[in-house]
């Protein structure tokens, strides 16, 4: 699958760092511009925002058991995301952050767990693994990959149990993980979450280690 990509910020050729930012179900790259990118006026960041055909990456809820249909849709979305990352990598050797919100966060985590076209850091705003723990899911996360995972205690799409299961799964795969659960937070990317992404991008842009020490 080849995805339509929205580019903003620095040109890839001159960027200090790249962020591939994946929108959620029923959203768009433009929504991510409004909710995330425009709150982070950072120099040297090239933003690449893929667009899901039809507005969603797969039809099922993330916490539903994996079916053949969901696996096919998820596989097509993962292929498109890998192609997008490979296209970016062909144009710059600067660090790349893969970030996403809600369904986009779930897709980003699934992509990281395939081990294909790996990012340097993964930021999953309100995400979990797709499917149930009993499902056959890839577990090829690059060892030591920095991952920032968030959730809300009453989120309508990603229950706390799914958030916790994802954190355990990522941890046992060897992620350098920080997981933040926000009580009472609506289904959105909050200011502390955006600040964490800003700290990650700033560190990579200046060739510093990613410590994920921004306050929540």
Structure description:
This protein is an alpha/beta fold. Helix content is 32%, strand content 20%. The N and C termini lie far apart (37 Å). It has 5 helices and 7 strands. α2 packs across α3. It has a single domain (4-205), classed as Rossmann fold, CATH 3.40.50. β4 (96-101), α3 and β5 form a beta-alpha-beta unit.
In short:
This protein is an alpha/beta fold.
Descriptive keywords:
216 residues, alpha/beta, Rossmann fold, seven-stranded mixed β-sheet, 5 helices, 20% strand, globular
Structural class: alpha/beta
Helical segment count: 5
Whole-number tally of structural domains: 1
CATH superfamily descriptor: Alpha/Beta hydrolase fold, catalytic domain
List the helices and strands and how they pair.
Layout lengths: L3 E6 L7 E6 L6 H7 L9 E7 L16 H22 L6 E6 L1 H12 L6 E5 L20 E7 L7 H13 L3 E7 L8 H15 L11
Parallel strand pairs: 2-3, 2-4, 4-5, 5-6, 6-7
Antiparallel strand pairs: 1-3
């Amino acid at each position: 699958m080849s995805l339509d990509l929205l580019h903003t910020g620095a040109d890839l050729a001159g960027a200090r760092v790249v962020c591939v930012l994946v929108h959620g179900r029923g959203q768009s790259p433009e929504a991510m511009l409004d909710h995330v990118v425009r709150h982070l006026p950072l120099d040297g960041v090239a933003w690449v925002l893929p667009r899901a055909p039809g507005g969603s990456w797969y039809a099922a809820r993330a916490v539903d058991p994996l079916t053949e249909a969901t696996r096919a849709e998820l596989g097509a979305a993962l292929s498109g995301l890998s192609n997008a990352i490979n296209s970016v990598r062909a144009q710059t050797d600067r660090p790349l952050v893969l970030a996403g919100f809600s369904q986009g966060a779930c897709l980003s985590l699934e992509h990281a767990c395939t081990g294909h076209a790996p990012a340097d850091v993964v930021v999953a705003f309100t995400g979990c693994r797709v499917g149930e723990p009993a499902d056959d899911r890839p577990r090829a996360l690059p060892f030591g990959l920095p991952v920032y995972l968030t959730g809300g205690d009453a989120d309508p799409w990603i229950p706390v149990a799914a958030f916790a299961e994802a954190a355990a799964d990522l941890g046992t795969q060897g992620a350098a993980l920080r997981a933040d659960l926000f009580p009472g937070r609506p289904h959105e990317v909050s200011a502390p979450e955006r600040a964490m992404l800003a700290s990650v991008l700033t560190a990579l842009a200046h060739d510093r280690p990613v410590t994920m020490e921004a306050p929540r």
